[in-house]
Amino acid sequence: MPRAPAKPDPRALLRWYDRRRRDLPWRARPGETADPYAVWLSEIMLQQTTVEAAKPYFAAFLARWPNVAALAAAAPEEVMKAWAGLGYYARARKLHACAREIAARGAFPREEQELLALPGVGPYTAAAIASIAYDAPVVAVDGNVERVVARLFAVTRPAREAKRELRAKAQSLFPGRRAGDFTQALMDLGATVCTPRAPRCADCPFHGACQAARNGAAEAFPVKPPKAEKPERRGAAFVLLSDGAALIRTRPPRGLLGGMAEFPSSPFRADFDARQARVHAPAAAPWRELPGAVEHVFTHFSLRLTIFRATLPPPRPGIENCRWTELGRLSAEGLPTLMRKVATHAGLGLE
Length: 351
Hints:
This protein has 351 residues and is an alpha+beta fold. It has helices at residues 10-20, 36-46, 51-64, 68-73, 76-83, 90-105, 112-116, 123-134, 143-152, 163-172, 179-192, 211-214, 337-345, and strands at residues 232-242, 245-250, 261-262, 288-289, 294-297, 302-312, 323-326. The chain is built from 13 helices and seven strands. Strands 1, 2, 3, 4, 5, 6 and 7 form a seven-stranded mixed beta sheet that branches.
């Protein structure tokens, strides 16, 4: 008769964490109390972003705005510029709105339900702040934790469909103490051992209890839904130069790249007709279509931009809703990655 698998031992995970925990700039060291501002700021940055990509942004934000009151007092456009390059720019708008709400309250909320009411704070982020900063008895479940739990219990539904089940199973592992450490231990386990590919099962403190590993099928979990093909949109961007400056404008505060600086561009549509692109140009000028195109992938679609470039003699004309920025100061505009690609394609030397 086959022996039943061992039950997952959360104490083993905590012992593993005490030896192998990652040293992260937003993480309190052993014996220290976590700063809710650092926890919140890092968790917002880490949404759809890798740890290595987030580290320099976290350090820059903390140096410039060391607490939530300082961030709340910042001008929205300065926050957007500081966020440039990190992507998913709605996070930055909500981050600033959230900072203002917390500053108005006078302190971070401590309860998960109160945290959920804040701008940009979803179930995972609320649970992470509550458990890590306040030791609330809740397990925060991010993508890494979903993978660990899906393998541990061999959950056969795709993670997107099984979120409630995965959260319940993760919560069932909670040992009743060290909530913040336990949440971070599960995250670290998924990030460093129970990785998407080639997981190091022999190094896992849950190895003897993991149903997927027991069947030699760890990489089969989490079950992946059929991959949907991303739709493609097209558009045009216009790089207008005059007397050592480029024409820049700010996108509307809501929507794609909301509040970010850009070279004037057309709408991005599936039915965009490049032959009619010049009707979206910001001014009359000797526009020249540049060879090739700029390609960029967003969460829900891929984009292909045709780039037009023109130069006007001085003096620079005033153009409604636009501004001229000296070429040497373009980096200070906080151009998002897409527009940095446009600048590079147009030969402006930005990377």
